[in-house]
Amino acid sequence: MALTTETRAVDGARELAERGSVGAMEKGVIVSSSAGNAGPFQGSLHNGIPWVLTVVAGSIDRSFAVTLTLGNGLIITAYTMFPARALVVNFPLIYSKTLSACNSTKLLFEAPYAVLICDDIGSFEDQIDYISISNTAAAIFVPEEPLISEFKC
């Protein structure tokens, strides 16, 4: 049985789910739950239920040097968290103040199929979400301060 104990659950719903999981455990059913991505603190669980098998995932604690070669021959060295080669060939590279926040589903779906340059707006995780569901070939994120190793997956 998979238990979901959303941290913003309606009053009483979380407690009710936890009590139900005790009953399942007493009947020999394995109850599992995700550790959650929201804390309450980094490296902590949103549930600490001792009879539940809590499943976790890791995060990337390193970055990889990459080279970006533009059509005019300019080579830019940067860092990525993606450890494999990515080949994005013959797509326009677009920087537009209208699109550069990379945080609007509507604008990103109307954007041309291209590589977008995204400005740092303080919400990298949200930008990744918007880009991943958009009509975009790829994106380059330009942080104010390059602290990519602090990104939590």
Automatic annotation (TrEMBL):
GO terms for molecular function: serine-type endopeptidase activity. GO terms for biological process: proteolysis. Keywords: Signal. This is Peptidase S8/S53 domain-containing protein. Gene3D superfamilies: 3.50.30.30, Peptidase S8/S53 domain. It comes from Nyssa sinensis. Belongs to the peptidase S8 family.
